[in-house]
Amino acid sequence: MEFKEEMSRKVAYVDTVISEYMPQEESFQKTVIDAMKYTISAGGKRIRPVLMQAVYEYFGGTECICEPFIAAIEMIHTYSLIHDDLPALDNDDYRRGRKTAHVVYGEAMAILAGDALLNYAYETASKAFDLIPESLWIEEERVSDEDKFKMLKIELETRKNVEHAMNLLAKLPGIYGMIGGQVADVELTGTRLSDEQLTYIYENKTGALIEASMLIGAILAGATDADVKNIQDVAYDIGMAFQIQDDILDETATFEELGKPIHSDEKNDKVTYVTIHGIEESKEEVKRLSNEAITILDSMNGDSTFLKLLVQYLIHRTN
Ligand code: GRG
């Protein structure tokens, strides 16, 4: 498999899904919708929706029921970036190679655009309920009881999976996930972090959304509990490796590569894995976590070629 081509194909697919689910600019709220679209359409690697789609596909998912969640996860991620860049938090002027939303639209509108993306993510994800195949033919005499039973089972299982996915989409970006990690990050900035504090921040601030993406893909495809647990372990490793790599790039990459300011951790007085362990040990840890993720994928039954190549890409990424 050619990773680059497959990744471009998947990014193009999730981009189409995201833009199809974005709202139209209209009426008096047009500016906030403009600001939402300005940031979400600025690019970005689309790691979370691609992971969701790739895991859904890995477990044999073929229906469009995943699409509202694909759009929703990128909306939530984009809201977190808009808010993270605000003057009250990191106060960054560039993101995804463009001026940040608060620079272009002003602080009030950027706060509202973040809030709006978060709300709209749930409005969007809930559209998955409309995509559940309904057993309308249940009254039809020409359909056998066996077929009716099969279809009813599919409908009920799909509904249960969508409910479970909604629950994860509500929980993991919140106080028991991304927000929780961000709160600890904000409160502990400038202090000497213990390993426990650093791990909590990384698991939640960055890891929770990656976990949500992969778990939702698995659950919507009807993966078994044992497989869901394996995917959760893979997601943990990817989330931790992703954040440590982000810290490394903050030290080693250029503004052009990242599309956002470098040395922003130092500017914000942040203690990171890199400031505690140094670049070389951090690179080793990224490799160790990635190898662990690949070992778990190898122990599973499906064809994980793309997922493993994606893990490799994440270690070697330069943006
Ligand atoms: C509610 C005021 C308020 C703030 C919320 C929750 C939050 C702010 C911020 C989330 C924390 C955050 C931005 C974590 C960093 C995770 C991370 C490495 C983001 C960059 O992700 P990439 O590299 O970005 O996937 P692209 O641009 O490629 O999508």
Order the strands across the largest sheet as they lie in space.
1-2
Report the end-to-end length measured between terminal Cα atoms.
Answer: 23 Å
Bound molecules: geranylgeranyl diphosphate
Number of strands: 2
Low-confidence runs of at least 5 consecutive residues:
none
- Shape descriptor: globular
Structural class computed from helices and strand pairing = mainly alpha
Compute the CA-based radius of gyration: 20 Å
Main sheet attributes: strand count, strand direction, barrel closure: 2 strands, antiparallel
> In what range is the share of β-strand residues?
under 5%
How much helical structure, as a percent, in the residues?
Answer: 55-70%
Task: Give a quick set of tags describing it.
binds geranylgeranyl diphosphate, single chain, about 0% strand, mainly alpha, globular
3D architecture notes:
- There is one protein chain.
- This protein has 319 residues and is mainly alpha-helical.
- It has a two-stranded antiparallel sheet.
- It contains 14 helices and 2 strands.
- The protein is 70% helix and 1% strand.
- A hairpin with a 2-residue loop joins strand 1 and strand 2.
- The protein is globular and about 70 Å long.
- It has helices spanning 3-21, 30-40, 47-58, 67-84, 101-105, 107-125, 145-171, 178-188, 195-220, 225-252, 255-258, 264-267, 273-299, 305-316; strands at 94-95, 98-99.
- The two termini are 23 Å apart.
- Helix 3 (47-58) crosses helix 9 and helix 13 (273-299) packs antiparallel against helix 14 (305-316).
- The longest helix is centred in the last third of the chain and has 28 residues, at 225-252.
- It binds geranylgeranyl diphosphate.
